[in-house]
Known about the structure:
The protein has one helix at residues 7-40. It has one helix and no strands.
Amino acid sequence: MKAGWRPEEVSAAMVELADHLMLGIIANRDVDRDLSILRRQ
């Protein structure tokens, strides 16, 4: 907010960041799962 962002903008940015973080965690988990399957073959 010191940079001039309104509280609503800060909150929206934090929600979007959390959403992208969760999507990254899920994608990494899926890649790890797929790699472990491929290693067994």
